[in-house]
Amino acid sequence: MHEEIKRAILDSIRAHERIILTRHLRPDGDAVGATMGLCRVLRRAFPDKRIWLANDDHAAALAFLGPEGEPPDAAQYDGALVIALDTGNAERLSNRHFRRAQKLIVIDHHIETHPYGDLAWVEPDRSSTCEMVVDLCASFPDVLRLDRESATCLYTGMVTDSGRFRFDSVSGDTLRLAALLLDEGIDTEALYAHLYLNSREELRFHAHALRRMKVTPHGVAHLYVSRAAQRALRLTSEQAYTAVSFLDSLRGSIIWIAFIENGDGTIRVRLRSRFVTINELAERYGGGGHACASGATVRSRREMRALIDDADRLIADYKRTHSGWQ
Ligand code: AMP
User: Fold this and answer.
1) 3-state secondary structure of 215
2) Residue 314 CA, ligand 1 centroid: distance in Å
3) pTM
4) Which residue's alpha carbon is nearest to atom 16 within ligand 1?
């Protein structure tokens, strides 16, 4: 599937001497894995081209994947090919210079709300953008060759964005493509230790989150993490953002939401669900994302409470009209 667009992407890569890979703000495992993995594959395939990671927003927790190198000067964008990975709309790109590029390619698995790019390969049913990058490599195996380092980056994105191959976006293709990565000899034990072991502070935060979690009448589990709590628990913002994953296993709570206060007073919203679709709810608050994993930013506690009430109504409707959820 999508053979023509993959061919067009490879043709564009071949046609440009300067290529810059970019991704969304506050990058996660998929965004970092896809940009770093594809960068390494392209550098091996085209050693004479100049290929950069835009490299302007980092995830400290993923530093174990290795250095990202110096970013290009702004002037290097003129006439270059920019490839934006894992980013559903241009506003979320971590980098503003992309507008200077000669051509912008988008490779992404989010539901498209504001299409952008000169050439966009978007498949919302894919479990991760890394899965799509592996698919691209598998389509041109003589050119885009994987190795252990690129496979480790791409596997990181596949594992983290699919909840360790648990979400229903995981297909037979996901596992067939992941198998190609394992064939490169990834050290999965070391990788999972980097991704999933906790510090004592993180475990203390987990306990705090479960104590403070609230549940609405129809079952929205939610948690607010103020700046004061982040300071008291000695959490970095990145650690505070993980709160959403602590709320995911209460039976009957088919929507769960973490609200994390940012340094500027705004509140980052991370929404997750099973069975019920939540991206339209996120869009009503200026955000977006996937059917069962979305995000937004609200500006006040009042807006936060309105969002919780809307989520409660959404669950109530869903439970009234569906069975089989738990
Ligand atoms: P997060 O909770 O930040 O991991 O977000 C879950 C999903 O929702 C990600 O795939 C994001 O791309 C998407 N998302 C998060 N925040 C926003 C936003 N403000 N606007 C649009 N999409 C978002």
Assistant:
1) strand
2) 19
3) 0.88
4) 295
